[in-house]
UniProtKB/TrEMBL annotation:
Alphabetized UniProt keyword annotations: Coiled coil, DNA-binding, Restriction system
Pfam family, one: Methylase_S
GO MF entries: DNA binding
SUPFAM superfamilies in the cross-refs: DNA methylase specificity domain (SSF116734)
Residue span(s) of domain Type I restriction modification DNA specificity: 20-195, 225-400
GO biological process: DNA restriction-modification system
InterPro entries referenced in this protein's UniProt entry, alphabetically: Restrct_endonuc_typeI_TRD, Restrct_endonuc_typeI_TRD_sf, Type-I_RS_S_subunit
The protein's name: Type I restriction-modification system specificity subunit
Family from the record: Belongs to the type-I restriction system S methylase family.
Domain of life: Bacteria
Ranges in coiled-coil conformation: 381-408
Length: 411
């Protein structure tokens, strides 16, 4: 029986590149050493930039151009020249440990528990870091890791790992496109974080603080004091219901036009429910609460205190409260509950699950403006939510594109 021929080129390549990739042991194209002498205990507010082993797990990146950690330069410190690849020398699993980063900046201290690889001129450091962290080469790396509860990677093992690479021009093209996508991802991540902070600040300004009846910021022509009300006076608050046992397939029907709202749908759609994967059967509908119009709901299990609005017909799981016959603008109350969400923690002990129920929610007080002012506030905040969602969708598409390229541009 003939041995299976090894793949010598990736699935996806730039036009004009058809030659097979070269396969060699890592020791043929690199030199090996280790970081030394530093741990978290050595960190200072100022000093030399330092890259520590733990950063390979807490804030992993393929390319390191800066670090926010500093230390005093010791006489025997290992300092980067800008062409070092670092790989953890210990980790929890063989898959976790099989990752590499290129320290692209000169003058960064390389801490202990890191293997250092310096490639020759035939291999670009970014290409090598990407190769070691993906596909077949990542698998080869994981195979040579040793240990059980804690696994280790030693330079002697790394030297024997097979690496596949094309000519340096093709390497640069691959590295450049992936680096550009990574930069776009970082940009959108920062944009999402900034918008989230802006919204948080606006929520604090547009709603009154505790025991106050006016917010700090208001639209023009609105000057009346807000009215103190209990949530239970503003809507009929009831709990959803679930058929049992919930795993029984008779409760569900893919052909039903009534969805089934579960806790997992809350986080997946960030509180605005436009579609549901699961649908409930006619038999199941008899065991739950079915709502056919948009309603405000509140999660009281798992993601406790998360508000949501349904825009489709659905049966409601018993992990939610439903606000029936509301005397408020749905979007306004959604935004208020989003702002108030962390405060539900007062009903739980430190380290324990928050116990939220309909009685507690009914008794919660809220300062409420006129319906017109509610709508002005909610309209603005919803637009901001749409902008945040737009950047999040772009971010997700970029991550999917990067994942596809990593899976198909390397062997």
């Amino acid at each position: 029986m003939m041995a299976k021929e090894e793949k010598k080129a990736p699935k996806l390549r730039f036009n004009g590149y058809t030659n097979d990739w070269e396969q060699v042991k890592l020791e043929k194209i690199a030199t090996f050493s280790k970081g030394k002498g530093y741990s978290k205990l050595d960190l200072k507010r100022k000093g030399y930039p330092i890259f520590l082993y733990g950063q390979m797990y807490t804030n992993y990146r393929y390319k390191i151009v800066e670090t926010s950690t500093y230390a005093i330069l010791k006489e025997d410190a290992v300092v980067s020249n800008g062409n070092e690849i670092v790989i953890p020398s210990s980790g929890e699993t063989s898959v976790d440990i099989a990752r590499a980063s290129w320290i692209a900046q000169k003058g960064i201290i390389i801490g202990s528990d890191l293997n250092i690889i310096r490639p020759t001129s035939s291999v670009h450091p970014l290409f090598l870091a990407l190769s070691l962290s993906n596909n077949q080469v990542k698998y080869n790396l994981a195979k040579v890791a040793q240990g059980n509860s804690i696994v280790h990677l030693y330079n002697n093992n790394l030297k024997k790992v097979n690496i596949y690479f094309p000519n340096i021009v093709e390497q640069n093209k691959i590295g450049n496109i992936l680096n550009s996508i990574s930069n776009c991802i970082n940009l959108h991540e920062r944009k999402c974080e900034e918008l989230a902070l802006i919204k948080k600040a606006l929520l604090q300004k547009l709603f009154p603080k505790k025991d106050e009846i006016k917010p700090e910021v208001r639209y023009k022509n609105f000057s009346d004091a807000w009215e103190q009300r209990k949530l239970g006076d503003l809507a009929e608050i009831v709990r959803g219901a679930s058929p049992r046992p919930i795993s029984d397939p008779k409760w569900f029907d893919d052909n039903s036009d009534i969805g089934w709202l579960r806790i997992s749908d809350v986080t997946n759609q960030n509180g605005r429910i436009y579609y549901l994967e699961q649908h409930i059967s006619k038999l199941g509908q008899e065991k739950t609460r079915v709502i056919t119009e948009p309603h405000l709901l509140l999660s009281i299990a798992a993601t406790v205190g998360k508000p949501l609005i349904n825009y489709i017909k659905t049966g409601v799981h018993d992990g939610f409260l439903i606000f029936l016959n509301p005397k408020f603008d749905l979007e306004y109350m959604y935004q208020w509950l989003e702002m108030f969400r962390p405060k539900w923690n007062k009903y739980g002990q430190p380290g324990s699950q928050v116990n939220l129920n309909s009685n507690l929610v009914r008794k919660q007080k809220i300062a409420l403006p006129s319906r017109e002012e509610q709508q002005r506030i909610s309209s603005f905040l919803k637009q901001l939510d749409s902008l945040i969602a737009l950047h999040q969708r772009k971010l997700e598409k970029l991550k999917q594109l990067k994942k596809f390229l990593l899976q198909n541009m390397f062997i």
